[in-house]
Amino acid sequence: MLGRPLTWEDIMSLVLTAARRLAALGLCAAAAIAGPFTTLPAHAAAGADLYITVTPRDGGAYSMHLTCDPDGGLHPYPLAACDALRSVDGYLPDLEVDPGPCPLVWDPVEVEVTGHWYGRPNPYYEEFANRCAMERKLGPVTG
C-alpha cells in the first residue's frame, strides 16, 4: 500500500479512520430509526386535522374530516368551524358558541372528536341531552 512496512502511526491512523466511519454510520442509522418516531407529519405542524363523529340515539350517525390552516376537509362549514376552534385554541370543552336555553327533551346525541390541533392530540367526547344542546355548545364544528 505505502511501499514500506506499516508503522504504529499508520496502523493507528487506519484504526481511527475506521472508528470515525463506524461512528458516523451509527449516527446515521440512529437518526433513520428515531426520525419517524420523533417528528410529526407535515400536516400536523401546519394546523389541525380532526375527525368528528356525531351519533344521535335514533341513528343517522355521520362523520366529518376537518382541517384548519388551511381550512377545509370534508366538512360542510370548514371556515366557521375552524374559526370557532381557534377562539378556544382547539380546546372543545371551552367552546360555547351560542349559550341559551334548549327544550327539556331527552334525545341524546354523542359527539366524538379525534385527531390533533397544531401537533397536540385533541381527543373529545361528550353526550348531549339533545341536538339543540349540541349545536349551542359546538355550533359549526358539528356541521
Question: Rg from C-alpha positions?
Answer: 28 Å
- How many structurally independent domains? 2
CATH superfamily of the largest domain: Subtilisin inhibitor-like
User: Could you tell me how far the N terminus lies from the C terminus, measured between alpha carbons in angstroms?
Assistant: 76 Å
> Helix content range of the residues, please?
25-40%
Low-confidence stretches: none
Beta fraction: 15-25%
Overview of the molecule:
The protein is an alpha+beta fold. The protein has two domains: 1-39; 42-142, Subtilisin inhibitor-like (Subtilisin Inhibitor), CATH 3.30.350.10. It contains four helices and six strands. The chain has helices at 8-38, 42-46, 78-86, 131-138; strands spanning 48-56, 62-68, 72-74, 109-117, 120-121, 124-128. Strands 1, 2, 3, 4, 5 and 6 form a six-stranded antiparallel beta sheet that branches. Strand 1 (48-56) and strand 2 form a beta hairpin. The radius of gyration is 28 Å and the shape is rod-shaped.
Topology, please?
Layout: H1 8-38, H2 42-46, E1 48-56, E2 62-68, E3 72-74, H3 78-86, E4 109-117, E5 120-121, E6 124-128, H4 131-138
Antiparallel strand pairs: 1-2, 1-4, 2-3, 4-5, 4-6
Key traits:
143 residues; alpha+beta; Subtilisin Inhibitor; 2 domains; 6-stranded antiparallel beta sheet; 4 helices
Write a short abstract of this structure.
The protein is an alpha+beta fold. The chain is 37% helix and 24% strand.
